[in-house]
Amino acid sequence: MSQKPSVPIRLIALDLDGTLLRSDHTVGARSIAALRAAQAQGVEIVLASGRMTPAMEPTATALGLDVVLVSYNGAAVCGRVADGRERMFHRPLQTDVAGELYAFARQERLQINYYLDDVIVSEDGPHLRPWIDIYRDRTGSPYRFVESLEGYLHREPTKLLMVMEPTRREEVAEVWKAKLGARADVVKTDPEYLEFLAPGADKGAAITYLARARGFGLDAVMAMGNGENDVPMLKRAGLSVAVSNACGHCRDAAQHVTENDHDHDAVAEAVERWVLG
């Protein structure tokens, strides 16, 4: 079994879908036990996901641990339940960018999630409902359906997300990366998802904020992930681990790759190796 790193790990940041969560959206008993053992040794557990905060709560409950939630791909950080689940950090998307994206989505008849106050505001319709159902079935996120999003465009959303056919997602991503430049970060997550966030709002910035708030360096942080949106935190963490089912970009960014995949307690494997020893 691998030895612990030279600097003791004080915080573990875990992606959810495809990393901690199995294909059936549950957490394996071995991973739960490993994380509880780590917390018992004084290690802080942080869940870091593209999901909105309410959609992360069931996983925190399943762990039976009071954890910090990094949500919206790092655009928001909420403290522990013991601290009132207070929002510690929030970096929303500018309204001018949101307006441009909405106009495009309306013209192209694409479904768009507008995240406000931990609720998804969305237009509805027969051509949009299949994409809404894909996202809602996977995440359990709360929706507020409106006739038009135009009445909400004066408010800065925490993020925007478009859901579409995967091959079209690739085309739309390239167009908007070029068009927005430094005005927003464009992130591909699940095969159908294209996310738009404020510049620098990513999981790497979130764990950097948390480490500073806790008074230790990033060398004391372990991060685990499987997707492109996990790369920023893997690059910043002192100990970075990709699960065996991770994408190529994620594997390239990580120092280690687990033998097990997310369906077979990859998180437990990593925590047992590098934290519990």
Keywords for this entry:
single chain, 277 residues, alpha/beta, Rossmann fold, Hypothetical Protein, Haloacid Dehalogenase-like Hydrolase, Chain: A, domain 2, 2 domains, 8-stranded mixed beta sheet, 6-stranded mixed beta sheet, 9 helices, 14 strands, globular
Distance separating the two termini? 7 Å
Q: Strand-residue fraction?
A: 15-25%
**Number of helical runs?**
9
* CATH topology-level fold name of the largest domain: Rossmann fold
Task: Work out the count of structural domains.
Answer: 2
Helix and strand sequence: EHEHEEEHEEHEEHEEHEHEHEH
Q: Helical residue percent?
A: 25-40%
Strand order of the largest sheet: 5-4-3-2-1-12-13-14
Name of the CATH homologous superfamily of the largest domain: HAD superfamily/HAD-like
The overall pLDDT, averaged over residues, is: 95
Largest sheet: 8 strands, mixed
User: Which architecture name of the largest domain does CATH use?
Assistant: 3-Layer(aba) Sandwich
Poorly predicted ranges (pLDDT <50, ≥5 residues)? none
Tell me the name of the CATH class of the largest domain: Alpha Beta
User: Per the principal axes of the C-alpha atoms, what is the gross shape?
Assistant: globular
Based on DSSP secondary structure assignment, what is the total number of beta strands?
Answer: 14
Q: Roughly how many Å is the radius of gyration?
A: 18 Å
Structural class comes to alpha/beta
